[in-house]
Amino acid sequence: MALYVLLGFSAGLPFYMFSTVLSVRLADHGVALAIIGFFAWVQLLPTFKFLWAPLLDRYDVPGFARFFGKRRGWILLSQLGIFTSMLAMALFHSDASLPLTALLAVLLAFWTTTLEVAADAWRIELAPTPGEQGPIAASNLWGYRTAMVAAGSGALLFADAAGSVAPMLRSIGIAPGWQASYLLIAAGAAVPLPILALLPRQPGCGGERAVALATGLAASAAILLAFAAATAAIGWLLLSAAAASGINSKTDVTTPVLVIAMAPFVIMALLTPWIRKLAPDSGPRSSAAIGPYIDFFWRYGFMAIAVLAFVSVYRMGDVLALVLSKPMILSLGYTKTQIGWADGAVALIASIVGVGLGGWMVTRWRWGVTLTAGAIFAAIGNFGFVWLAHQPVNQNTLYLATAADQFGNGMAGAVFVVYLSMLCNPRYPGAQYAFLSGFAFMLSRLLAGAGGQLVERLDAAGYNGFDLFFLGSGVVSLAALLFLPLLARAQPRADDRA
C-alpha cells in the first residue's frame, strides 16, 4: 500500500502540468479559449495507451529489468521521461511557440501514461480480488490525488508569488513565474526515482544494482531522445497537413477526430460474432498485439458494447469540468493564489475522504450501489461550479465548491478503478486495463477539446456558456446510471485456455 501511494504520487504529479495548470498558463499568456480547448486533446494520449500497452507486457527495458524486473524497469524509464519533459516545459515557459508547447505536453502525457500502464499492470497482478483491490486502489488514488493537488496548488501559488522572490530566482538563472513553477514540480517528480532505485531486487532477477542502473540510464537516454525526435517529426507532418487544409482555431474538427478515434472500437464491435467463435489457439487470440483486446470481446460478447458505453460516460462529467473549471474561476475574478489555496489543503482533504470512502464501499456493497453513489456525488461537484458562478467572489465559497468537486471525483474515481480492474482477464492485466481505462476517457476528452469553442458559441448566442456547460456535464454523469440494469447481466465466459 505504501508503494502504491508512491506510484500514485509519481503519476499524479505531472498530470495537472499538461492539463489544468497548462490551461491556466496558456490563459495567462493570452491564448484564445478555443486554442486552450484544443490543448485538452493532449489528454487523449491515455485513451490510446492500448496501442503500446502490449509492449510493456512483452518487452523489458534494457538494463533496468536485469535487477528491477519488467514492471519496475518501465516505471523507472517513465519517471525519467516525466522529469526531462517537465524540465523542457520550464525552459520554454513563455509559450512563444505553441507547436513546441504542444510537443512537450505530448511527451509529458506519454510518459505519464506509460507509468500508469506499468503500475496498473503490477497492481492487478498483486491484488486479483475486489477485497484486495479496494485498499491498494485507494492507496494509489491517495498518492495520485495528493500529487495532483500538490502540482495544481503549488504551481499556481508559486506562479503568483514568485514575484516576491524574483531577485533570488533571477540570481540563480530562474525566471520567476511559470518557469519557477515547472522547475518546482519537476524536482518533486524526481523524488521517487532514488527511492525506487534503492528497493530490493525483484524476485527472480539477477545482476548487480549498479550495473543495472548504469546500463538502464544509458538505454533510457537513447529511448527518450529517439521518441522525442519521432514525435516531433510526426507532429510537424500533422500540423503542416492541417495548415495546408486550411484548418484553424475556428474550424470544427471535433467530428472527424471523433470518427477517427472511434473507428477501431466500432470495427471490433462489428466483428464480435466472428470473435466469439475463435478457437483457443487461433491467430487473433494468440497475437501479442491484438490478443488481449480480442479476448475482452470473446469473454463478454455483445455485452462488451454495453460495458464500453457505460465506462465512456461514467467519468465524462469530471473530465469536461477539469479543462474549463480553472479558466471559468479566473473569469469570475479569483486570483491564481486564491485558486491555489483552494486546490491545496481543501481539495486534498476532500479528495482523500472521497477516495477512502469509495475504496471502503467496493469491499462492502454491491456494484450497483457503489457506482450509483459515485455518479451522484460527481454530478453534485459539477453543479457546484454553476452555483459558484452566481455567488460574490469569496474565498470560502470557492473552498466549498472545490471541496464538493474533489470529494465527488475521489469517490467516483476509487469505485471506477476497482470496477475496471475486475473486468480484466488476469492473463492480460496491463493491456486490458489500458484498453478499458483509455476508452473510458476517450469520448469525454474529445468533447473537452471542443469545450472552449462550445462556451464561446453559447456566449455569442446570448446564453451563459459556462453555466450550460457545467450543467450539461453534471447531467451526463447521472446519465451513466441508466446502464446499470443492463450491466447486471454482463457475466464473462470462462477462459478456455490452460
UniProtKB/TrEMBL annotation:
Keyword Chloroplast appears in the UniProt entry: no
Compartments where found: Membrane
Alphabetized UniProt keyword annotations: Membrane, Transmembrane, Transmembrane helix, Transport
Membrane topology per record: Multi-pass membrane protein
Organism of provenance: Sphingomonas naasensis
PANTHER family: MAJOR FACILITATOR SUPERFAMILY DOMAIN-CONTAINING PROTEIN 3, SOLUTE CARRIER FAMILY 33 ACETYL-COA TRANSPORTER -RELATED
GO cellular component term, pick one: membrane
Annotated protein name in UniProt: Permease
TM region(s), chain numbering: 33-52, 73-92, 98-122, 142-159, 179-199, 211-237, 257-275, 296-317, 337-360, 367-387, 407-424, 431-448, 468-488
Main location: membrane
Annotated InterPro entries: AmpG_permease/AT-1, MFS_trans_sf
Cited SUPFAM superfamilies: MFS general substrate transporter
